[in-house]
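Q: My collaborator sent me two sequences in one message, no labels, and asked for predicted structures for both. Can we handle them in order? The first one she listed is below.
A: Yes, handling them in the order given. First sequence, followed by its structure tokens:
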Amino acid sequence: MKWVFVLCAMVALSECLVQIPLEKGKTAREFLEEQGLWEDYRQKYPYNPISKFDQRFAVAGEPMTNDADLAYYGVISIGTPPQSFKVIFDTGSSNLWVPSVYCNSPACNNHKRFNPSTSSTYKYNGTPLNIQYGTGSMNGFLAYDTVTVGGLTVTNQIIGLSKSEAPFMQYMRADGILGLAYPRLSASGATPVFDNMMKEDLVSQDLFSVYLSSNSEQGSVVTFGGIDSNHYYGSITWIPLSNELYWQITVDSVTVNGQVVACNGGCQAIVDTGTSMIVGPQSSISSINSYVGASSQNGNSVVNCNNIGQMPDVTFHIHGQEFTLPASAYVRQSQYSGCRTGFSGGGDSLWILGDVFIRHYFAVFSRAQNMVGLARAR
């Protein structure tokens, strides 16, 4: 299967790493900028990343946000014979859902749609599923079918099938979402895919890891059942979770040039592959952006592209270790909107360490130890 790499140790063939390549495709924002539609889109569907982690929806639904900068998608299949879908492997949610043939929203019409009638392993459940977005929602129902992720086949996996989707989804490259957070977060009590992998002994270790390539369209992977040492330098720092709902950890402080500029006295952060930026309270993000020399323009924190080499590092102090981001890691360059930082404001206290952070720090998510492991990405 061309989408899967299986790496096995010579001493024990059972110790296999199942790796699912992630495509780093054109983002919705890039597509809209090319069409000259971005400003209108941004005003109509404001970016609200923290709504995804609103505790009011933590168990009753699966809040998502219209993150137009998400770039990484992997391919899974559902049904017998298999129907393929591009999904975001999202450590900030727990449900698996894809569009269905019963959906006629514009967002469904330009994405792959699952057809239950052609799958011999499909079982109808019918429980309603509602996923709240920052602006709009996905409405659908639950069903069961065989799901294949890499070489791992999960039978009787509960899935969400959409019947309507928020308009902004039509610009996203991914068809749906595969959630990798804890089952307590799952809407309608649906068992997450990775929980079934563990239950069915499909993985040799109860963990998965994520490597996001910075520059190339290829090279990014999600690895189930182990850790590929080719993707990081040095040793892994293991950080205990502060909340076993999301992959939530405690950050001690954020500094620039040795000075605390945010998170003074500690704060809570979620390591989230389903958020493109680093998100924090507006006052804290404004402080960081000010210290690195960014100015606010049309909702972006803009910097001079010629100054990137002279801009300061931003350091996250976590569990006694320093996780430093150079400007080359936190500044993103676009031919349409110039250079802007990857720090975005939102919410009251919670932080999100999204793809800007994970591109620089290889991340391991251990359900066996309830810890996140971080190491400098190669």
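Q: And the one she listed second?
A: Here it is, processed independently of the first:
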Amino acid sequence: MTQSRPQRILVVRNDKLGDFMLAWPALACLKSAHPDNHVAVLVPTYTAPLAHACPWIDEVILDPGDAAPRHQQKNLLAQLRAEKFDALLTLFSTPRIGWLGWRAGISLRMAPATKWAQVFYNFRIKQRRSRSQKPEYVYNQDLAAALLRTLGQNVPAPTPPYWPLPDATRDIQRQRLSNELLLSPTRPWWFLHPGSGGSAVNLSVAQYADLAQAISANLCVPPKWVLTYGPSEEAVAQQLVETLNARDVDAVLMPPRASLTDFAETLGAADVFVAGSTGPLHIAGALNRPTIGFYPAKRSATPLRWQTCNAETRRLAFSPPADDASSASDMSRIDIAAVARQIADAWPTPTATEETPCNR
């Protein structure tokens, strides 16, 4: 079979960190389809550092956003016109981006068939994501596959990790943390991120304290808890460290990191990552670290829809009982003791020595 010609593809996912991380499987699909495909992304300044770190991205273009002054919008339009992209793939469609792609003269413009912004696209894919019938990253992969078929390219099937850090990088990060926090390299390190960045409902600090205490009590080798935090969340993480230490649960605060990429690569040192449905949880998923996520039970934000993109055997998810739609976001209905037992029973502590769980 004759190999199709390489394509210049612009992908847009210009919203939050977790959403961008769930685009990496689609980016891997596009880049792997042809060795010379040029994959560019349009992203906000916040996620640009991770876009530069993504192995599936060749070019990062900054989106100044809806509120940017007119001259910045004109400069972006001029840049896209000059780039002469073959295709535009918008994973989350907005009128401004649709109009931008049309004015830039990109001949193939594809997006989900939602909202009136779809009028700017000449290829529209019905997905009905609000029904939450698939994971978000699979919806993204479906769009990438449709684009590749339209471009006449084969559709590859990349597998986790979608952020394949070299083993040496993880070793360096573990050694670094060991030096900074005096962590034993033979003891499991469980990272816990109690903040949510305001993007999703989450467990309370008290629930996370109960959870960490119960997990430690249910495992043969209690983990060392490393508390991580985002902007403006350090005080919450420090509060949780102090609460756990007062209960004789060994916990420390992760040292500050110089950049978002530095923070993200540090998550590669985790044996397990525990959080609500946040950007850091999805970074850990892209790194194929074992994850434990907490989600509401409402249809638009189910554990299925927003699951991490790590291997199926490396993720667990919990949400409130689905028996009452009016309480779908009431995270206090999650039985923390039962969750801790389920984690210990179902999932051996994934360390280098593969310690096994036990009930105490």
